[in-house]
Amino acid sequence: MKMFVKEGDHTAWRFKMSTTNFTVHRQTMEDFFCSTELSEKIHIPLICLSVVNIIFALTATMGNTLIVIALQRETALHPPSKVLLRNLAVTDLCVGIVSQPLQIALFLILLYQLPQMCRYTYAVCRTARTILCGVSMLTTTAVSVDRLLALLLRLRYGQVVTLKRIYGAVIAFWAFSTFTAAISHWDYAVWLVFGISSTSLCLVTSISCYSMIFLTLRRYQNQVRDNVQEQANQTIPLNIKRYRKTVFSGMCVQLALVSCYLPFLLVSPFAYPSRELRRSQTATFHVAVESAVTLLHFNSSLNPILYCWKITEVRQAVKDALRRLFCSSNQPRTGGSGG
């Protein structure tokens, strides 16, 4: 009986130590981003980052609001593709009105050195960033898969890629990203590995899709070149040319996403708040992490520009939306002067 009590005490002691280590780990992670010692050394960079994030928040909000309105009125795009683009625009809009204001608040709290408030703000900011950036990455990957299926399936594309399945995929994207954000509150290391793995998988999938698209297009062009029928020479090249523009627009969005996400993916593994790494981390590294986060958010301001530049249907819909907006604002003046 005595030995049993000792065994139970030993088990309870191990459980208590593991709980204590988990709490210390959580506190260490929060302290890394909310250290007053580091914030005292980077006042000017924090002010600059705050101003830059304010500008990006305004451009992301205005640009994506216009894109959402334009896609609501646009009818030329295929409905499943339109749902994916709309989901991407809504996600970028949420970055501008939720994630970036939280990031700005975090910078201001660091400037005023409020560590307790910084802990809660950082937790909320990390959660919002994980959800929105995760949905953006998954949606961009889905766009590349959608383009590949449109090329390979052709007439069967409308039967396979339906609105119901696309809506189900979008819901799954939000659920998966929310689950990933929840992991960050349980264990930072698991969240880090999970996030890097899923992001790498998305990038590999997109690269594979676009590689297959280029190989398929080249094969189609060779077939057209060898075809001696005049009708084929008049119709197929035009379809390939139009499809190539759509693929190129998707590649531009993908390239912009990779360029904005890559610095954060390179820096985030070294931001793991272990004691060994914290000893070697300096104020410059702290600024690098926050700058990578700012570049991450910049992607939401860049996407609307790419939509209007590379997608003809979206550009025309934006022009129509702006024309209606200006006409409706000038209509009361015209009526008043006429009376």
Task: Walk me through this protein's architecture.
By secondary structure, the protein is mostly helical. It is built from 12 helices and no strands. The protein has helices at 2-33, 36-39, 43-73, 79-112, 115-153, 157-160, 163-184, 188-226, 230-267, 275-280, 283-310, 312-338. The protein is globular, with a radius of gyration of 25 Å. The termini are far apart. Mean pLDDT is 76; it is low at 1-8, 10-27, 228-236 and 334-339.
Task: Based on the model shown, name its key terms.
339 residues; mainly alpha; 12 helices; 90% helix; disordered N terminus
Radius of gyration: 25 Å
Helix content: over 70%
Uncertain regions spanning at least 5 consecutive residues: 1-8, 10-27, 228-236, 334-339
User: Strand content of the residues, in percent?
Assistant: under 5%
- Shape label: globular
Largest sheet: none
How many E-type strands? 0
What would the average pLDDT be, to the nearest integer?
76
- The computed structural class is mainly alpha
